[in-house]
Amino acid sequence: MNSLFDLRGKVALITGASSGLGRHFAGVLSRAGARVGLAARRVDALETAAAELSAGGAVTGIARLDLNDEESITSAIATIEQLLGPIDILVNNAGVCITKPVLEQTARDWDEVLDVNLRGAFLMSTHVARRMRELKRGGSIINIQSILSYRQAGHIAPYAASKAALNQLTKSMALELARFNIRVNGIAPGYFLTDINRDFFATEAGAAMVKRIPQRRLGRFEDLDGPLLLLASDASRYMTGSTIVVDGGHLCSNL
Description:
The protein is α/β, with parallel strands linked by helices. It has one domain (3-245): Rossmann fold (3-Layer(aba) Sandwich), CATH 3.40.50. Helix content is 44%, strand content 15%. The protein has a 7-stranded parallel sheet, sandwiched between helices. Helix 4 (107-135) links the parallel strand 4 (89-92) and strand 5. Helix 4 packs parallel to helix 5. It starts with 10 loop residues before the first strand and ends in a 9-residue tail after the last strand.
């Protein structure tokens, strides 16, 4: 591996790591040499994911994490530090989406989405960044955003609002944390097949949306490997406050 992308000696913590993109990100970072902490609510799924990674030679640790509970956040961070060492890389990947017309979205729906996607990412980032500052290690925080940080779609107003706010939070934190050698960047995926959208892309409307993507396909998880490794490693040491869009050209289109 190119030494720029070598993560040996680093500890990475990924939220929402029990399945989907989070589970994939854990594999990518572990293959680059990082010790990986997997955090999510479903401990049984975390144990399965960690066992699969460990069978391939990865060094892993797991922690139950409920992003609605600040004590759970601090406990998860402490657990991963105890198991693997101080955290160098945080990937705020966990996210939820409630799909309803905006006039049917409730205050409870709004709170559920914003509490995980925005408040949870904020709390994870600030708690990890305080430790990075205390230990004078610096580090990299990577927020998984969305192309809906920049454009609109129907029936997911709280989700789009949370991702747009996360984009601005990324820049605000980058501005303040640069002095501590803590970089804060984002990745904004376009449409990738995940548990959140799987049912939608099985419909005619979903198939029609795929046709509007300039590359005429959904993203594959591995399409995010390069941007992730770039932002996690020293290859991006002079990047902070940036968001890399990975969307097959969707933002370039008017469709």
